[in-house]
Amino acid sequence: MTEEHPLGAVCGHDDIAHLPPKERAKMRRLRDWLAARSWKPSQAMAVLCGYDPEVGRNTGGADMSFLPGADDFYGVPFGARKPDDLRQLNAGLEEQHGYIGGLRLTTMPPKEAIAKTVAAGVPIPWLKVARDDPECRKYLPRQALDAPAGAPRVPLIAREVASLGGKAKRDKDPKRAEFFPIVRRLVAKGKRPQEIIGYLIDEFGDGEDQKRPSEATVYRWIKEIKDGSEMNRDVEG
Q1: Phi-psi region of 50 (alpha: psi -120 to 50; beta: other; left: phi over 0)
Q2: What confidence tier does 15 reach under pLDDT thresholds 50, 70, 90?
């Protein structure tokens, strides 16, 4: 991929010439996407997950074109190729995709998509970088300028799976505390993933204000239940 982004937005004088070439290219891509007239849902998904929509997730972690801050957010170095790094990246991306997918974003201006994401409390990998860059900052909604940038919680979730200490932290998540027992009970009754998701939609709704977990989260929980020791616990009837 060339350093210049296909959108070709003009950023004025080269005020980022001091950055290393890869970092400079990432910043230009972020500026271009923030300056776009609108984002399609697939573009919003990619940008808000921290990678360039024109490269995409399907290329694999090592070849994805991260936007600024995504490597720190996911806890994985840019261009990583070690299996453990790639597993952590994929776990983090799956979680972030679930959060963004749950927002049900339609085609809309970037400011509106960012505002909805911030209002929902979903972290954005590049938000701190964008605030600190005058060119990016002018495209951010007021909510993004005022809200705390937040810690990179996605890598934490990926690490938590491996330890009891992490599990204790993870179980403090109010959504997990409410819905994980329901999912565990339905899995114990032999319900398939789509039946479980259908039950949650019927019981807790499917609108923009939904309180239920995203489909990606439900699938992750089901895998966790089947792979781990959760099925050995006593299950409420």
Answers
A1: left
A2: confident
Token readout for 186 is 């339905």
Average pLDDT over residues 93-113: 90
10/125 Cα distance (integer angstroms): 23
Taking the C-alpha atoms of residue 217 and residue 179, their distance in angstroms, rounded to an integer, is 10
Query: Mean pLDDT for the chain?
Result: 75
**What is the rounded distance in angstroms from the CA atom of residue 208 to the CA atom of residue 103?**
6
- E strands in 136-206: none
CA distance 53 to 126: 14
Res 3: pLDDT = 40
How far is Cα 28 from Cα 36, in angstroms, rounded to an integer? 12
Cα angle 141-103-64, degrees, rounded to a multiple of 5: 80
